[in-house]
Amino acid sequence: MTRETRTEQKFADLNQPPLWSGINAYRSDPLLVDATDAMPKGLRDEFDTIGRYVTSPEAQELARMANESPPQLRTHGPRGERLDVVDFHPAWHALMRRSMATGLHSSLWENVPDEQGRAHRARAVRFYLTAQLECGHLCPLTMTSASVAALSTSPQVQREWGRKILSRKYDSTNKPAMQKTAVTIGMGMTEKQGGTDVRANTSTAERLGEGIYRLAGHKWFMSAPMSDGFVMLAQTREGVGCFLVPRLLEDGSTNGLRFQRLKNKIGNRSNASSEVEFSETFGFLLGTPDAGIRTILDMVTLTRLDCALASSGIMRASLAEAVHHTRGRNAFGKPLVAQPIMTRVLADMALDVAAATALSLRLAEAFDKARDSAEDAAYARIMTPVTKYWCCKIAPALIYEAMECIGGSGYVEERPIARHYREAPVNAIWEGSGNVMALDLMRVIGRGRDLFEMLFAGLARDLGSAGKKTVDVLRAALSLCERDEGAARMLVEQLALASAAAELYRAGAGRIADAFLETRLASGWRSTYGMLDSRFDSAYIVDLLYPPAR
After folding, report:
1. Number of neighbours of residue 469 by Cβ within 10 angstroms
2. Average pLDDT of the chain?
3. Cβ atoms of 470 and 498 closer than 8 Å
4. pTM of the model
5. Three-state secondary structure along 364-427?
């Protein structure tokens, strides 16, 4: 018997299950395996590799170190010179190196043969799995990937920066962008006085030449400040413009960006978020001088999908840890997972995680197909704010409940679930809070109400016998919103639940879909988990979605 085996036996004798580690996050997720079954073998093998990596002790240790050793800002050097440099723990760089090699920042734009027609879905699986390890380092990768949509409005900027963005060779050196093997891109939208209302921004941009502007102002939140460039909004004479702002100039000097402090955030601690002032700062115009909001929204749409995927991923990891723990711990004479109340709590949560996963992957599929399918284009436009809203909103409560299933030992920082819990609120706040998502849906009602009919037709088809009644309820909620903007959240949630149920049916998860539909759409309001009744086989749900380790 090895020392490791003896140690595990000792903990088993103490009624302490082994840690949730070394369990393939891809292979142990039947819904994800089924969703990728038709993809080429090369992609499935890659997902298998990522699934093994994210739960490995080595990777989990990197995640721990990166979050326990947050980045540090150095504003000045020993001679009093401005540095404006953020130092990261080596674990952060290791995570970045691995994820960039995987292409999380670039694969959408690379035209990889195996990913033709499925680039968003393939990346979504990678992102969902990697989120189960560590989400902080995903922030700059999300923005870098999405930035290509904004940069495409300026062909010259895209030519110069595009090849650096698409490089998979991580380069953390503090050098001008064009001297590096690869670059990352951050974003600066939020200001003190404006917040979500970016039209109220006071940062200014003065035209110096063709496509070149000089910026001055302040950003209340600029994430990933060690990025090589930032997509930023500022007021031009014509209106709000969008700009790519390099961090360093070609001679290596700073581009007028003075970092005031790093935000002391509740979670997302491995990633730096800064407050910055700037003047005499040069930027490249993206799009036209008055179309900055429209330009940056193309980027924001992509980041919202990542918010939903990350929330779904950390919910999956948290519940997997809880199920694993309850299977290995005895209480009152039998395994905790077999206690009827516990079984129903776990099964109830499993339904939401399955729904969030299915909904996020369906949105990625719609992104892939939107160019050639009017139905998918309608789905992408309506369901981006809806999916982002619902997946991100349910994460904190679900992860807390999973923590409670583990018990007191779940309430310690040594477990990954503690990191997931602190991380959970951020995706609902960043890239548009819940109210912003509801208002975005209201814009669709005002400008493209016909899109809803295409969505409803698909829901009626996929929901089968429940389709007509469900769509009638949605139409009533839509009509209410046309009279009362304050009712928008009700429509958002009803759309999320109906669409999630439809996607579970579409994925072939019949009994899971039945249970979700009946408990979420056909029953009364509820505020906690564990409300499944005996009509649904809770043990079957748990074992199907979280199969016991072999």
Report:
1. 13
2. 95
3. yes
4. 0.96
5. HHHHHHCCCCHHHHHHHHHHHHHHHHHHHHHHHHHHHHHHHHHCHHHCCCCCHHHHHHHHCCHH
